[in-house]
Design a protein that fits this description.
With about 350 residues, this protein is of the alpha/beta class. It is built from ten helices and 18 strands. Helix 3 crosses helix 4, helix 3 packs across helix 9 and helix 6 runs parallel beside helix 7. Bound molecules: zinc ion.
Length: about 350
Amino acid sequence: MRAAVLTGSGGFENIQISDVPDAPAPRAGEVRVAIRAAALNHLDLFVAEGLPGAGREFPHIVGADGAGVVETVGPGVTSVQPGDRVLINPGISDYSCEFCRAGEHSLCINYRLLGEHLPGTMAELVTVPAQNVVRGPNLSPALTWAEAAAFSLVTLTAWRMLVTRAQLKPGETALIWGIGGGVSLTAMRIAKLVGAHVIVTSSDDAKLAAAKQLGADVTLNHRTQKVATEVRALTNKRGVDVVVENVGAATWDDSLRCLRRGGRLVTCGATSGPQVSLDLRRLFWHHWSLLGSTMGNAAEYAEVVRRLGQGELRPVVDHVFPMDRVREAYERLAKGQQLGKVVVEVSS
Ligand SMILES: [Zn+2]
């Protein structure tokens, strides 16, 4: 089968299109999906650079997010059948450990992601547990393959961050950094669905204008404005209820300066670096909650798919590249040029 593979670590320059053995025939409880489109996430850049713990065997098929048509089902699979158009939840659990049994699949002790620890979605075929695919909802206008591919990772991640972890409430205010990113943009839309007030940042005025169109209440340019000063002024020195972080080192101090007493900071990433400092006296004195979050569980995934079926949280697709231009797709993400999801068309 045709696939985008990493031939070594060190960057996305090492990705090429090549012929690789087909994804394995599905075993009991598994399905094999003929992929139509795959979407990029920041994770894919980290994997290309060489993430600790990521697969070290090359060639490695890249891509976490994808959508396509069920090609074959393994024994015992009744939830989907060949020909079904499906979205793929890229977080693969063992569905048997203590955390899985408690319904917390993204806490699984054997949690693995497509494209990171397992062969990815940028291939004509991928084999996954049947629990990881769901039929795409019928929408009008119909969900495109690009939208279907772009949906799962960021929507699941942002939903768990805001709804489950930070428990954002109607009327509260959230600060969301870097609105061009897929998780940030989705977090903004979830915050608006919840009925919260949203302040977003970007270094790009065009992205801020687009974010405003998509529902942002206040936009700040973090290159030309002091975010913490502005946020404290906007909130009468109180600070925001929730800060949504995925930048890390570059924004951490300002994130804490923006947080109200008793506020919640939720983070799912560290794109600018993972090491930050924390004055414990400020943490306990201000009763802050610092919350980590990764991906989400099966119930959360079912909920975001249900919301999609209601026409909510339909992905914002930035650009679709054909698979033979996959490196351009990575480059667009690496340069932070996108607003919304960068998608690769795998087959038509
Ligand atoms: Zn588990």
